[in-house]
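>> Question from a student workshop board

For tomorrow's exercise we were told to take the sequence and the ligand below, predict the bound structure, and bring the output to class. My setup keeps failing. Could a helper post the expected result so I can at least see what it should look like? The ligand is pyridoxal-5'-phosphate.
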Amino acid sequence: MSVGASLLAVREQIEVTARAVGRAPESVRLIAVSKFHAAGAIREAYACGQRDFGENYVQELAEKARALADLTDLRWHFIGHLQRNKVKQVVAVGASIQSVDSERLIQSVASATASSGAPPTGIYIQVNVAGEAQKSGCTTHNVASLVAVARGLPSVELQGLMTIPPAGLAEAGTRRVYRELAALAAKNDLAGLSMGMTDDLEFAIAEGATVVRVGTAIFGPRSAA
Ligand SMILES: *Cc1c(COP(=O)(O)O)cnc(C)c1O
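>> Workshop helper replied:
Here is what the output should look like for this input. Compare the format with yours to find the bug.
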């Protein structure tokens, strides 16, 4: 299937799922996750109206942003693990950052944004809801303090919470993770909920996702994990 046809199918899946649970389809934003796929594939999706794209690696994001600089209304979202010494490069392309998980990282994003003179950088706090070892994301207990830090910094715009559920969970387990993220967001008065990927976006939408991050269903399999 072409990128355009796959994109249409995903949009339809979002629309049908949202309506089935009584939500407006426009309340769910689709980020097309383009890691490991060529700039040409992004152009194809852009030509079909897609504007939000997600990348996991700083170098790859920088190269694609350069190659696609003519698409001025394309929006980048950084969704991978981010080291503080690379924050500047991400801020330079105007990306929002969905993988913020420590106070030091929030402060780096704020200072890189302030010194570049750019408008506030949109951020999501990534939460390791299931408490998996070796997984990015703050603990559920840390969310409130990171929210307070972010709210005190004018150069970041805190938009919501993001999570990646443990791999291989059945529907009930995945939904429990998403429900917990939604409860944490509500408790902290945050509207944005970035959750749901190719295999579980329907569960995520049912649990209140406002952003889904979909790669494989749009661009096909990746050559590397
Ligand atoms: C790769 C990735 C996705 C997309 O996953 P698919 O299963 O290909 O849809 C979504 N979110 C994050 C954080 C990712 O790293």
